[in-house]
Design brief:
heterodimer, A: about 190 residues, mainly alpha, Rna Polymerase Sigma Factor, Chain: A, Arc Repressor Mutant, subunit A, 2 domains, 10 helices, about 70% helix, B: about 130 residues, transcription (chain A), sigma factor (chain A), DNA binding (chain A), RNA_pol_sigma-70-like (chain A), transcription regulation (chain A)
Chain lengths: ~190, ~130
């Protein structure tokens, strides 16, 4: 089956095809899922090199579990976010501190150069602020507000109840507000407000 | 007439801007990482294919018990005992053949055996 047609298949169907020996399914899953795993790891760790290691390890676990995947029990992405977070938390506990590389340039085309720089600066500031949060708060905030997942799915990923997710995200956001409030001017908010 | 001053933006709104900025510029994986991941996928597929080669029913049955050293030893012993038993007390269909071997003259046996082995020939060549 051509790769274009693969893009219409769900993650579980692709995983089943991969387990049956379909090489195109392996490529489709890599292109679809590896960037999400990498981005999540990079946001939790703030370190590209470590995020690359984690991404490769997580995807290797996916390839190995594919033949035993029980369809319908959990979304593939839920499993991936969970494994990624667990490995990242292990890393964070014995980590060396290396800053995230420069935030990639946004795609050309939309806002002005100045606006793009402001947006990139805000993304970088957020990343630095996230790094100051406790691990679980960081994980919950990233999953809720950047990955855009709902609380029930986050609860499954973090193996906690939905109320605990709400509590973690609320505390995380309050902490972020406090950290970022001191950087409003340099991030363009004075110009916006006056 | 009072002039309205723009209300300062609240931090919560600011945070939404930060989250939007982060979503707009996700950390992108390098191409060589994707290549390594795809290679891992193929390696795992190939590793799973290898033991899936078709094996004959007889071979798989045989493979099942020759893998056990104790059974292998027992089979060898049983073969040895059966050989001795057939030589000492051959069953009727084999008795004529066994008698023929035992009653053959030395010359006849010597004529059917080549005393020169490959090992001997190798030494002679030096």
């Amino acid at each position: 089956m051509p790769l274009d047609a693969m893009s219409e298949l769900g993650d579980e169907e692709l995983l089943a095809r991969y387990a049956a020996g379909d090489r195109d399914a392996a490529h489709a899953l890599t292109v679809r899922l590896a960037p999400r795993v990498f981005a999540h790891a990079a946001r939790l760790l703030g370190d590209r090199a470590e995020a690359e290691d984690i991404s490769q390890e997580v995807m290797l676990k996916l390839w190995r579990i594919a033949p035993d995947w029980r369809a319908g029990e959990a979304k593939v992405t839920t499993w991936l976010f969970r494994v990624t977070a667990n490995l990242c938390i292990d890393r964070m506990r014995r980590r060396r501190s290396t800053p995230l590389d420069a935030v990639p340039e946004p795609e050309d085309g939309a806002p002005s150069a100045e606006a793009r720089l402001t947006e990139a600066a805000r993304a970088e500031a957020l990343q630095q602020a996230l790094a100051q949060l406790p691990e679980r708060q960081r994980q919950a905030v990233v999953l809720r507000h950047i990955e855009g997942l709902g609380n029930p799915e986050i609860a499954r990923i973090m193996d906690i109840g939905p109320r605990a997710v709400e509590s973690l995200t609320a505390r995380g956001k309050r902490a972020l507000e406090a950290i970022l409030s001191g950087r409003r001017e340099e991030l363009g908010y004075v110009d916006d407000d006056t | 007439m009072s002039t309205t001053t723009p209300e300062p933006r609240r931090d919560r709104d600011d945070l939404d801007d930060f989250f939007a900025a982060a979503r707009a510029a996700p950390p992108e994986p390098a191409d060589d990482l994707l290549a390594r991941i795809a290679m891992d996928a193929e390696t795992e597929q190939a590793a799973r294919r290898r033991p899936m080669r078709p094996v004959s029913r007889l071979r798989s049955l045989f493979a099942g018990w020759v893998g056990l050293p104790a059974l292998r030893g027992a089979a060898l012993a049983a073969t040895l005992v059966a050989g001795i038993w057939i030589g000492a007390a051959p069953p009727a269909p084999l008795s004529a053949t066994v008698d023929g071997i035992w009653s053959a003259g030395d010359a006849q046996i010597a004529g059917s055996v080549d005393p020169m082995t490959a090992y001997d020939l190798a030494w002679m060549g030096e």
